[in-house]
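Sample intake — 1-hydroxy-2-isopentenylcarotenoid 3,4-desaturase
Collected from: Halalkaliarchaeum desulfuricum
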Amino acid sequence: MDSPTDLGSLAGKSVVVIGGGFGGLSTACYLADAGADVTLLEKNEQLGGRASRLEVDGFQFDMGPSWYLMSDVFERFFGHFGRDPAEYYSLSRLDPHYRIFFKDGDRVDLVPDLEENKRLFESYEPGAGEALSRYLETSKRNYELGMREFVYKDRPRLRDYADLEVLRHSRHLSLLGTMQGHVEEYFSHPKLQQIMQYTLVFLGGSPHNTPALYNLMSHVDFNMGVYYPDGGIGTVVDGIVELGEELGVEFYTDQPVRKIAGRRGGFAVRTEGGGEFLADLVVSDADYAHTEQELLSPEKRQYPAEYWESRTYAPSAYLVYLGVEGEVEPLAHHTLVLPTDWDDHFEEIFEKPAWPENPAYYLCVPSKTDAAVAPEGHSNLFALVPIAPGLEDTPERRAAFREQLFDDIEANTGVDLRDRIVVEETFCVDDFADRYNAYAGSALGLAHTLSQTALLRPNRESSAVDGLYFTGSYTTPGIGVPMCLISGQLTAERMAETSETN
């Protein structure tokens, strides 16, 4: 892939980056490397944004992202600065990549060996093994073309898609239709369809509203592998922060921003408690809607409140972090528990918001791979149930759902947790809103629907405030740790382009 655009025009500029999630950290590194004077302000007590860590009584939990996918993106990111990820953290490849418990009693493991996965598919449906090969060929082509032409290249205007080169590449991509329609062309068995679509949970969509282009995630899953950074995703945050410090970024935690005033060449970013940081340019990695609606005066907002109200948001989540005595043997490092028909669960997220009656959910047991995240003789476990953003989130509702979830885990995996719990913390809709200023308590931001993909996502550069930019999951390329890393590069490039003309 091409190297990032020259960022030399940013040398000597002072920049405040608001928010220390992966998008903010990435942008800060690119800007500092280009010679800018970069200050990053983080609202909370630690850097990483949604990739926060919870440490309680010898247990260390990744509070947010826990899958390390698309290792090529991390290699490219560190490579831009003449580094390698291995200088900052080590990786272990998982085997199995993940385990699925279907709620009819069926259980499958997806593994690094493609031939074994093909045999698994064939056992469900004659011809499905070869169909998997064909599907992954398409997925690989879409990944390579899509990453080169549409992920690493920012195309914010309709005319950016109109040149012959773009149209030539577009013909080879699955740009139209939904994931459900695309997967049905290859597999009839509903369980195989679910296996090919589980990543939609991490993109914040459903099979019926996510573009078919995202079949490229199957190449990531089956061909590129699933890894674990020793110590958890938090060690990746530590690595990027260490890189940022080497490049000269100044990091400040416990600095909630209350107002962005001024314009290019004369910004003042004011924090709770009366602090003020002056800058030539500002980048926000905070929740986009929060930035516009709360940090800017009305005349400086690009989008009215009605715009944000009309958007489709990715799910929120009910999370419970558990320190458990003993082993949880039936579970793998990554485990999915899926109803054989998950349409009702997606409907309860996107169509008729409600706490799910028969949820699909994810269980993570990093202590299967890393003994350091739990005391000896104990297991580190968290459960994540995607739920609709904006749901009523009360202690009573959480307590009732906890009992429902523990019953479901025991019934479908055989793991009885209740009498072995020594640490327990929950995190839900109101916590996402409070800790991350997340609109409607979404865990991820804007969903990747057909009408919210590519140039249809919010602008990377403010059209109302000269010198204000955005990075992170609301912008392109979108949701997920790798995408947010790439957003940092794209935002820095846009800043350099506009700085050349100002």
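Post-analysis note: The longest strand covers residues 316-325.
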